[in-house]
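pasting for the record
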Amino acid sequence: MLVIRKFGLRESKGVLRVRLSQVRNIHGTVALLKEKNEESKSSEEQKISPVDLSSALKHTSKLRVTNQEFATLDQEIDLSRTKKVSKKYTQDINRNVLSPEVQNAIKTEDTTAPTPTRNLRSKTNSKLLVGFTGKPLSKAPPKRNTLSKHAAFPKSSRSPKPHKAPPLSKEAIEIISETISIDEDVKQVQQLDKSKIARLAHKLDRTLFSPGVHFLQDPRTRIYNFTPYLKKIIKVDEFNFDAIETFVSVSKDQSLLKVAEQENKKFYSSTSSMTSALIQFYLLLNNYMPNTEERFPFPKFSGAIERVASSVVVQPKERNSKTGEMIYAVESDKSADTEILLSVMGHCLEALLTTEEKEFERYTLNYKNQEILDLQHKQQMEDQEDKPQNTYNYASYGDFLMRSQLDCYDERLPGNGTFDLKTRAVCAIRYDSGNPDLENNTYQIWKLNGNLESFEREYIDLIRTGALLKYSFQARIGQMDGIFIAYHNINSFFGFQYLPLSEIDSTFYNHSRNEITRHIGATSLEDIDDDLPSYVADTQFKMSLEIWEKLLKVIIKDINQVEEFKDTAFRLVLKSSRIPGSSRQRMHVMAVPLDQEQVHMLQKFPSTFKTGYKEEITPEERLQNLTRHRDELNEFNKKTTKSDLGVLSYCIDVDHYFGNAKSPVKELHAYPRSKDQPWKLRYSIKRLPNNPKQYLDLLATTTDMLTSNHKKNLESTQNDDYEFSLNNVDAAQSSDRKKVTDKANVLKVYSAIGKARAEKWEEKDANPVMYKPNP
């Protein structure tokens, strides 16, 4: 075995390609020598004659070893394996079989390295057969003339095969194993009253039909492409929030409950409550691996996406009067939320972008507080001040009813003409979102490309943080055409961009193979499947809803089996993660029953502590309150696991089937070759033993974020004892330079640089000029 391991798998100048018959010849020769050695144990020092292996080494064909041959080889090795071989015997074999170069390499190798534990088949697949692809290797082999047991072999261009998932606990019980194929569409439940949906103001609608980013103001000439009115954003404390419709949570939306009963739906929810769970299904169905660039060419998701679980609260509301079935509201878990300036500013900015300048005055506090002596005039004004009503789209799929607020409408867009409106703060503000002094941030965007101060940086962050994927789910739930994004720094807008949903789909649901092969055999444009990524996105969205629906029904059935907990609310936690030792994702699911008092306490947790941006407290006091919030929430979560049901635990595994195949796809990332190729998904739900620790650990990951980000910001502020100035950078000492270039302070430095840029531009901006085409 020593000879086979050192000679058959490695050679000092490269990978030695050996046929199976060669390995067997060598192995047979070793067995023969072993027998000879046993016969002459009394004369162990007798020299063994050299063995002629020329007939075994003259073949270099590139052959893959079949499974049948592997099975035979394993048997032969087991039968011929020696229990004990003398050191002298081994030395003689090495001296007579191996070349001088190989012998020298063996002598100089690192013998202290741990011996690999993989079997011969695993070794051969992952290392020996790498050289059998017949294609140029991606990397050149090491030039050093050594033979290491752990030398890095060149990677094959072929994608690695997925590892078999390790077996679950013997106590795991398979509840459901079903195969689904998608043959249903998401349906619009009610006809839209498009006259009540807002439209873009300030001539921003032209961005809907012009791809790319549109600067508010040309950074070079300072000429405005849109009205200078957007240069200065209203302060949040000057905005009259009473003039806009307030957000209605899912559990309190009686209209939504009524529609659910009319449509005979068992579950109802909203975009904001569903997106976090849908992201977990995305990771599962696509078997997300950030390093697989041919399937995930976009910037890899930040650690938070892969660490933080989705948590929702499922509450029974009332029974359907026609069917007698209980109807459930699925609402996001708000227990770890904090009120930050950006979340409040969103409503203000949306009103600004959809309201013309003169009309927007009625959203200001000055307009609300002005003295009106004429009571009749006052009554007339109040009649005109009716709040704009939120307009919703109701969509259904399976037993789900989904509510989506409609922000904007333009009849020239495809579909129903609706699109979502998002206001995106610059990176310097988002990374310091807990800072109540954000309104003074002067970070600028004035470039298309670059790592800082650019639209490219903001778009990359949209992808990396998962925000763009979340936007795509919201648009898909609302049956919208796309997303309008306005980039700002709270004080000013910098630019605007419209992203059709199809473009976002091309980012998250594309495959490099699709770009290379989709034209093969095409006889028309329809055959090219330009919209294949959107087809994949739509199909996976529906698959996610089907699995989620079945999962909810399983949990409800398990809870209702105990009379004490019948028709009880529960918290549902979903987390997709890599199976240890495997290349597959698995979704872990945990459910904990909650009584109505616990549900109320859970959702009201954020208001119990003074942590919001409006609170007039010091940063140190805010951190103390956030720490109390975290600790008491962790304790509350622990108490909820003490019921008789404890923590109900499950897991979900999936396999994809394409065409008429009877076995699942072996590729790591299943992807259809065309829209016409039949696509089925087989999923299984297994019940696992209760696991309170895993449940609490997942929740703790979220609660820890309450303090971790604010603590970093506080430490950065306390260490920020330098004054940035363009005049003294060159004269700064090395210690000062280290402070300026420290990662924690880079964005703060560029906020100061932004202030200097604004001062430089003041002269040109004093007399604003707006672009007009020449006559």
